[in-house]
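Table S2 (text version). Query chain:
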Amino acid sequence: MLNVDTKYKHMEQLAEYREGLKIKPLLKNLFLELTLRCNEHCLHCGSSCGDKKSEELSTEQYKRFLDEIREDFGTKGFMLCITGGEPLLRKDFFEIMSYAHMLGFKWGMTSNGTLITPEIAQKLYEAGMGTISVSIDGLEKTHDAFRQTVGGYKKAMEGIQNLIDIGKFKTIQVTTVVTHQNIGELEQLYEILDKMDIDSWRVINIEPMGRAKLHPELILTKEDYQYMMDFIRSKRMHGEPVEYGCSHYLGAEYEHEIRDWYFLCSAGLYVASITACGDIIACLDIERRQELTQGNILKDRFKDVWENKFKDFRIDLSDRCKKCQGCSEKERCHGDSYHSWDFEKNEPILCFRDILF
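Corresponding structure-token output:
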């Protein structure tokens, strides 16, 4: 464990580096939201995915976009991150991703895992997928209720095992969204996952956004947050591949303790996203607001947008927030994450001050 002074020094260096990224951003992750359709109906979904139909880019439009990205950025140094909805619901999924693989792109995806049969797992390998994160949100009864899908847990666990059986993926990760209702199952879930040959377990808190706003009973209490962080830290201290996600500044006690890096909201600095209809935005978890849409790939060249727009994401949110003024962590937190920012009140919806520090 690093002492507080060392952590603060590292975070000061990161803040200085971040200033450079505001001027010259570095694309590391390009997210493609292939669809908003999903075969599950999760109570926390920020995009409210499900059965609804929405405008989607065509196969040929994706191929043209991938050609453009390779021409402007090459295929090295960054990754395509494929998400949805459930990406595998697209009938042309493998045509699109095989094309990306043929062009030389590295890619990974997030999935609920329920559609990953042994045949699909093999096809994912052949299409060049390197990494995948599959959601398991508690023990069987809890998971199925949270995702409103009978049999979802069993199918997802079978999907994970089918991926493991291929034996050739770089990273197979499980992601768990922690709620007030499943936090008591973390230890049991750890024991189950520890017996599987996965590479990492990402444990993240439910965010007060999307459908989660309709379910306040799921939001974590102060004691829940502290328990979750201590649970992750304890596992990591014993060498287990458990980590918190990228969200939120955690204060000096927990920073660099429950993940390998210090907090940096990378929206518009490292990360850009293409929505299902082709809109160019920062992080897909950020509230969908017209003023935050930077363009659309059907009429704008992504490189021009990346280099010349995203101005709202290359500032310090804390400068807009009255609550942030006078906070001793302001220069390390920068106003926390864009995805949990209240753009009407200009303040974070979730701040860990007075919860963790």
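Notes on Table S2: The radius of gyration is 20 Å. The longest strand covers residues 171-178.
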